[in-house]
Structures are given as C-alpha cells and as structure tokens.
Amino acid sequence: MESELTRFYFVRHGETDNNLEGKAQGLIDTDLNATGRGQAERVPYFFANQNISAIYSSPASRATSTAAPLSIKSGIPISVDERLVEMDQGDYDGLSREEMRSVIPSDWLETWRNQDPTDLRIPNGETLGEVRDRMVETCDELALRHTGQTIVIFSHNLAIKTFLCHALGISLSNFRKIDLANCSLSEVETVPGDYWMVSRINQVIEV
Question: Does pTM surpass 0.90?
Fold first, then answer.
C-alpha cells in the first residue's frame, strides 16, 4: 500500500573543479567549487514542501557540502554512510581524459565502453558490480528503517547510476545511457522487500 512506500531522493553532489576539468573523481576528496556551492544552496527549495525524515550522505566533502544547506534548513542532521561513496577508481583516480587514454590498456577501454563492465576491475579499485551491491545493500536497509517515510541521499555519479540500473532491472552496461548532472535529483520508491519504482532521473534543481 502507499503508506508502506519508502521514497528515496538521490542527489548527485554539486560541481567540483575536477568535474569542470574532466578528471576522474573516485575516493579523492575534493570539495565544491563556487558553482557547486551555488547548486547546493538551491537544494532546500525543492524540498520545501516535502516531509523529510532523514538525510544520508557519502563521507566525501563534495557530498556532505551539498547536503549541508538542506540539513541546516530542515534541522535534520546528516547521517554519513561509507557505503555511499563513489566507485573506487584506483590507479585512474584524479587522471584527466587525456592521461587516461595514455595509460589505460585498449582492451580494458573496449570492455568498459562497449561490453558488459559489471566485473571489470579498475586496477587497485572496484568493479561496477561491487559498487551496485553495496548501494543496494544500503538502500535495502534504509528502506526498512524508514518504511513509509521520505529520505534524501547525497552520493555520486557512478554510485547512483549503478543503483538506478538495479531499480530499473537493467544490466549495468546501461549505465552509459543514464545522464546525471551535478546536483541533479533522481526519485525512487519501494515497498521494502518487494519492488523498486523509478519515477524521475536527472532533474536539475532550479529556483
């Protein structure tokens, strides 16, 4: 029934200089730039008429800084969960696109771009399948903890995309077809232990 639904809003963090410069950004801890801080300040306007029960965030500064204005406005503290971090990009973290092309083997790139990347491991990093599994585990737990409530999760590009693929029931190879702008919203509902339903993806918050 509708009263049993848990509603999730996933918010990708605001813009950082690494985003602007096209650099990989996994576990590197970078904060928001001026544009990103402005994006974060708009987040509370979207939730002005929402009855939010909890705010969760990746521990990365760019995520907690995006969550901060909503936390301050709503009076709801930010609960940090390590499992909401971005994909660990290992040896490729912090590299520009040009640097990646010079060091990543061509067969690795071919699999990442055109085949099923689920079990493709970044050297000294994670696979997309591992990211999906920890995101699903986290969201399953939160759905039960907040049955019938609305929660907001501040996370990252690939982390959110892997969960959206799960919720949509599609292969992780489809992550390339999902666009998530900085500070965009995606909405997913669930009857805990039953189904997931995606109702919006990549809504940019405007005031």
Answer: yes
| 86 catalytically annotated | yes
Active-site annotation holder among 13, 15, 41, 156 = 13
Q: Which domain holds residue 76?
A: 2-204
Task: Give me the pLDDT at residue 41, please.
Answer: 97
* CATH assignment of the domain containing 179: 3.40.50.1240
Beta-carbon contacts of residue 32 (< 8 Å; ≥ 6 apart): 13, 14, 15, 16, 39, 40, 61, 62, 65, 66
Give the length of the chain.
207
The helix/strand/coil state of 56 is strand
Where are the extended beta strands (E) located within the chain?
6-12, 52-57, 78-80, 150-155, 184-190, 196-204
Total count of domains within the chain: 1
**Higher per-residue pLDDT: 1 or 41:** 41
Indicate which residue of 15, 41, 86, 126 is catalytic: 86
Distances (CA, A) of 200 to 9, 11, 112, 164, 170: 9, 12, 26, 10, 16
The span from the CA of 152 to the CA of 160, in Å, is 12
